[in-house]
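In the design runs reported in the main text, the only information available to the sequence generator was the tokenized backbone. The following block is the verbatim input for one such run; it is reproduced so that readers can re-run the procedure and compare outputs position by position.
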């Protein structure tokens, strides 16, 4: 475990997550890389306890649980992992950035679709296409078969 960072994590202009609510753990990265992979703990796992968060409202917590269901444990802990970079500091920045992306995407309110009828011209074009296709298939038939 590493020491927490001093500054809070800014998600957007109305949401600031205190660093006390975020936990980082480190471990050895997998894959190729020689001695660096075998000795140094560069993989960083960020754990954010949604349930214990004082920053998020209940509605926001519910939305995050629903939209990030594959990343949130049964206990309500959001987990983000990075092992892409060679240094622990770079992976820590990567998980911070990824957490912000996930929160912004999940908390965004989606625009509702306004139900509209297809234009008359589009209906006419579709029906003309069907008639043309029907005529083409009719021309392929052998004469005398009905």
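Verbatim output:
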């Amino acid at each position: 475990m590493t020491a927490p960072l001093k500054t809070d994590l800014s998600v957007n202009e109305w949401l600031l997550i205190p660093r006390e609510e975020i936990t980082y753990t480190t471990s050895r990265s997998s894959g190729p890389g020689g001695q660096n992979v075998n000795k140094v703990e560069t993989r960083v796992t960020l754990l954010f306890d949604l349930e214990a968060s004082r920053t998020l409202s209940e509605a926001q917590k519910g939305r995050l649980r629903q939209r990030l269901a594959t990343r949130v444990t049964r206990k309500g802990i959001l987990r983000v992992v990075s092992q892409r970079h060679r240094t622990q500091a770079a992976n820590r920045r990567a998980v911070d950035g990824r957490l912000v992306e996930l929160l912004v995407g999940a908390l965004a309110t989606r625009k509702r679709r306004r139900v509209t009828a297809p234009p008359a011209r589009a209906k006419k074009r579709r029906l003309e296409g069907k008639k043309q296709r029907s005529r083409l298939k009719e021309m392929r038939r052998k004469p005398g078969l009905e």
